[in-house]
Amino acid sequence: MTALVVGLVAFLAPHSVGILASDWRSRQITRIGERPYKLAYSAVSLVGFLLVIWGFGEARASPTLLWQAPAGARHATAALTVIAFILIAAAYVPGTRMKAALGHPMTAGVGLWALAHLLSNGRLADVILFGAFLAWSVVLFAVRRARDRDAGIVYPPGALARDGIAAIAGIVAALVFAFFLHAPLIGVRPF
């Protein structure tokens, strides 16, 4: 479990610095340069990601059950995860109404993905993993939206056709992941 927690800190901390400690980040980039900073950021994130994978796998080998999910929870998880994939896709499709409404659809999508997985997973390692991502995304989303308001940022209104592109891309990605990648990568068949 220690590797999972250390990995989460090592992965989520660098992903939070730009928002929660932007002045420190700017000083480091000025001091060492943008490329070395990005290299260090990537290295720490990669080590954290690998520790999360290893720690989660290790914790799943001897699970501690906190609660048993109700029978329909996996269907709710699947539906919410598809929506999360759509929101993540909307972050990369320019000119969506989702981006205009949310400002940061990827952060919202990560939070929804984490919440969805908490619904159907009651083991301690699951709660730590998905709970950490949920807490991180809620805090980051709130900070980013407040920063947008303070800076007077207004996102362009977006077009329905762009939302359609994001929806199709998100649904396709969710289906590919669920049917072809989830079982071999995660060890759990969602359907």
Output the keywords:
globular, 2 domains, 191 residues, 9 helices
Written account of the structure:
By secondary structure, the chain is mainly α. It is 80% helix and 0% strand. It has helices at 2-12, 14-20, 22-32, 34-61, 73-90, 97-102, 105-120, 124-151, 160-186.
The profile of the biggest β sheet is:
none
Give me the number of helical elements.
9
Beta-strand residue fraction? under 5%
Helix content: over 70%
Coarse structural class: mainly alpha
In total, the number of domains comes to 2
Are there runs of 5+ residues with pLDDT below 50, and where? none
Q: What sort of overall outline do the alpha carbons produce when their principal axes are compared?
A: globular
First-last Cα distance: 27 Å
List strands and helices in order, with pairings.
Layout: H1 2-12, H2 14-20, H3 22-32, H4 34-61, H5 73-90, H6 97-102, H7 105-120, H8 124-151, H9 160-186
Helix pairs in contact: 1-4, 1-8, 2-3, 3-4, 4-8, 5-7, 5-9, 7-8
Tell me briefly what this model is.
The chain has 191 residues and is mostly helical.
